[in-house]
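Project standup — Tuesday

K.O.: blocked on the structure for the chain from last sprint. Re-posting the sequence here as requested.
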Amino acid sequence: MADVKTAAARPSASHAGKPKNSNNFMLNLLIVVACVVVGYLIWKFVMGNGSNFQDAEKMHAKEGNFLGLMYQGGFVVPILLATLLTLISFVVERTLTVFKAKGKVDGGEFVRKVQYHLANKNIDAAISECDKQAGSVGNVMRAGLLKYRDMTTNHDLTTDQKVMNIQKEIEEATALEVPMLEKNLVFLSTIASCATLLGLFGTVLGMIRSFSALGASGGGGDATALAQGISEALINTALGISTSFIAIVSYNFFTTIIDGVTYGIDESGFTLTQSFATYYK
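H.V.: unblocked you, prediction finished:
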């Protein structure tokens, strides 16, 4: 999470933006590739372990053996496993980032404390509250308060110009904080859609196998092949839907928290500009 300390720090941060974005992309790509590899290894060597099956051909899972049953879902299963692992990875990453951005003090309580200190013209105490908050709202408020303090000793600008400078400082700090909150949510929204489609793809392949077995037997029906195809279809459906469900719930959970943080940032900006206009006319 970006730590907004002084206005002077921002130009160098902007120059460092592209390498940082490049590093984030490579890290995300590495996570996805690692999840694909781990998903395949789990399917091949854990679910496909011979002890999970009644026969060496791995056609019949032991009764009640869930791993062997999942293995019979076919090659779509490791893809869905990789999708699920990727989802879990980014849920953990977003949890750590978003809850850190939320800060140690509730946004509403924090803004009220800052308002109290500003009403008493104790700007340093207000800045101290920002350090205690230690979240995105505190970072933005701190950047605004530093400019706020500078404007109180500036006698060359009008009140409106000073307020505009404070507002600009807040907008620049917000531009650093908000992208960090929303980063990687696209993975959750993408997985929410793609997991269901992958599950349906596996379902279709399983049904094709079932009807192919039925047709090859002349309508008499090869019970083993027919059951295996239906099993493959249902396994992929269940795995795809469950992954999609987790992704949708996670996405909505994080966006709700981010909306609350964003509201706190907007409220802090309004507080600073209104306070300055009131106490430093």
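K.O.: great, moving the ticket to review. Confidence is low (pLDDT under 50) at residues 1-19. The CA atoms of residues 105 and 133 lie 5 Å apart.
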